Amino acid sequence: MYSKSSFKGFGHFVEWLLALGLYRLVRGAMFVLLLAGAGCLHSHKAALARVPLVAAGERPLARRLAGADLVVTATLAKTERDWRYEEPCGILRHVLYGCSDIPKAYQATLRRGTETWPVFYFKVGDLPHPAVGDSAVWLLRQGVVYHLLECAQRRGVTSAYCSYDVAYVVESDDDVLPAATWEEVSELLHTLAQPPSENR
Fold first, then answer.
1. Packing angle of the helix pair 182-191, 59-67 (nearest 10 deg)
2. Contact at 8 Å (CB) between 44 and 66?
3. Which residues sit opposite 139 in a β-bridge?
4. Cis peptide upstream of residue 118 (ω within 30 degrees of 0)
5. Which residues, in sequence order, are CB contacts of 119 under 8 Å at separation 6+?
6. Could you report the per-residue pLDDT of 55-80, keeping only the tens digit for each?
């Protein structure tokens, strides 16, 4: 049997090995994420550099396409409001200013055939679109979506930490194009050297 001191020493040795393995695992994961981010940044930068190659009238759309992480033709199959990602209004703000200008958060599913893409979008007021059944060309950007309700509660109690999700986001109405524009979008993507692999 091991003496108590030697067992403790062995335990510390095992803990050190586990910690070293975990450190290497985390470092490797961070390295992969950094590489992915650098690749994405490089891809956007290269595409933005090619925007002057397209006709002047098409450059605003070309810039949006160059900044997108995914361009897909699909139908909005499902949408559901999610209060967790909304800034709480509060009694004082409700009395002084009202809450109509606070964006409403929605989790949605885009579908084309058997393929689906989960996305987030935000609406101010009761705008009719996006709505279930809308078929469009969607320009999606991968971004951070904060749990704003939880953030507000934490600020009032313990810490300023704010949890979040990384997801595809529809950032504006300009990123929802009529489905009939896909041919034009496809040609621009080809010029920007971003093959529309999700729409083959």
1. 70
2. yes
3. 71
4. no
5. 107, 108, 109, 110, 138, 140, 167, 168, 169, 170
6. 999 999 999 999 999 999 999 999 99
Q: Cα(first)–Cα(last) distance of the chain, in Å? A: 66
CA pair distance 108, 119, nearest whole angstrom: 5
Q: So where are the chain's domains? A: 1-49, 69-199
Contacts of 99 (CB under 8 A, 6+ apart): 89, 93
Q: Among 185, 183, 198, which Cα is nearest to 60's?
A: 185
Give the burial class of 71: count Cβ atoms within 10 A of its Cβ; 0-12 exposed, 13-18 middle, 19 or more buried: buried
Q: Which residue has the tokens 């729409």?
A: 199
pLDDT tens, position by position, 110-121: 999 999 999 999
For residue 148, give the nearest of 120, 176, 125 by alpha carbon.
120
- pTM beyond 0.90: the answer is no
How far, in Å, CA of 142 to CA of 147, rounded?
16
